[in-house]
Design brief:
The structure is a single chain. This protein is α+β, with helices and mostly antiparallel strands. 40% of the residues lie in helices and 39% in strands. The chain has a 4-stranded mixed sheet with strand order 1-2-3-4, with helices on one face. Strand 3 and strand 4 (59-67) form a beta hairpin. The protein is elongated, with a radius of gyration of 14 Å.
């Protein structure tokens, strides 16, 4: 799995990069066919925004979240992606 992290109007520190990597790597426990993840972190005045696109074989998922704290926005983002991947995997199981 390849994780690409970019920042808009934001300097990406090593702490932020490692936090995003650890959070997004946890998505693999729910879906084993994740090929890549593109994450974009941005700042708009007082709002911190995190968005990501997850590429899975046969599908693509997008989620975004906003918060006053960047770490909280990343947590919300991973929760949303987690729910989407679980729902997708359940659909695949029910069609078999």
């Amino acid at each position: 799995m390849q994780i690409n992290i970019s920042g808009h109007h934001l300097d990406l520190t090593d702490a932020i990069k490692s936090y995003v990597n650890t959070k997004l790597e946890k998505l693999e426990r729910h879906h084993d066919r994740i090929t890549s993840i593109n994450a974009i972190l941005s700042v708009d005045k007082q709002r911190q925004k995190a968005e990501a696109t997850v590429h899975v074989s046969g599908a693509e998922f997008f989620a975004d979240s906003q918060s006053e704290d960047l770490y909280a926005a990343i947590d919300l983002l991973t929760d949303k992606l987690d729910r989407q991947l679980i729902k997708h995997k359940e659909k695949l199981r029910s069609h078999r």
